[in-house]
Amino acid sequence: xxxxxxxxxxxxxxxxxxxxxxxxxxxxxxxxxxxxxxxxxxxxxxxxxxxxxxxxxxxxxxxxxxxxxxxxxxxxxxxxxxxxxxxxxxxxxxxxxxxxxxxxxxxxxxxxxxxxxxxxxxxxxxxxxxxxxxxxxxxxxxxxxxxxxxxxxxxxxxxxxxxxxxxxxxxxxxxxxxxxxxxxxxxxxxxxxxxxxxxxxxxxxxxxxxxxxxxxxxxxxxxxxxxxxxxxxxxxxxxxxxxxxxxxxxxxxxxxxxxxxxxxxxxxxxxxxxxxxxxxxxxxxxxxxxxxxxxxxxxxxxxxxxxxxxxxxxxxxxxxxxxxxxxxxxxxxxxxxxxxxxxxxxxxxxxx
Length: 352
Description:
The chain is of the alpha/beta class. It has helices at 3-14, 18-25, 33-46, 73-87, 104-113, 134-141, 165-178, 194-211, 215-222, 230-242, 253-265, 299-314, and strands spanning 60-66, 90-96, 118-122, 146-149, 160-163, 184-188, 223-225, 247-250, 275-280, 293-296, 323-326, 329-331.
């Protein structure tokens, strides 16, 4: 195809003059950013290769550091964040921590060396109360904007994005209590993590409000720490069932699947003999057997807020150095039912 014909095609597709197309293709000034984007989009639609200097017209790279991707909530969050960054013209760079692989500090160094415009951390060391927060102040001193998701430290001057973990536990406990459960256990990860500490606070308060149970009794008999994994949930739920719990609230959906497995190994049915509640509402969790009742983490809102906040930082209008807290939502499915000896509803009608 001849050059004039090509220019005419692109101009028609973009709704601009051929002279404007020529200016864009030759990198000349005097073209509005939106018009330039229209011309480049027309090139893509018509299947023409962009001139080399117009490729990768990215606003920059943005690093996204997540834990392992075995827990489906992390890929779900990464997808929301990646899409939101792409819509704003940035190129997301996903860096994943793996056991025995790169540490958060090594991944940060790698991203900074590549000149990223900013970094979003998901469930990183900022959520670990035993970690040294000085690393984040050093990053700030280097002039790299960053946002922290799932975790909070008063020692770090940065925007934080979190779900309301305390409210999540109140939703779960209130639901189970309404079904007649009076001995409700909590299975969660190591105590040093901020979301874990907050879930404990919310759980203890909710159990106290519902049943008047002594906080020391709650801590010693109704709370089990393990790993944020299927095996961890299985171990914690086994201990809670041994303690007479008829319902188990889990700090992740993966742990909840472990709790269901623990119940089945004892010959118990979920939810007839024991109820299980998860946390996250991970992809595909509605299709387990039984479908999992869970507290939904507001992933789309959190991911979009993380990107919006980071881009404000990059743009030179820093967001407040505070915590943006998002309300979770209880999603009732098939893994919860009336407590043993109780009928449906308010949990006060004995079974026949």
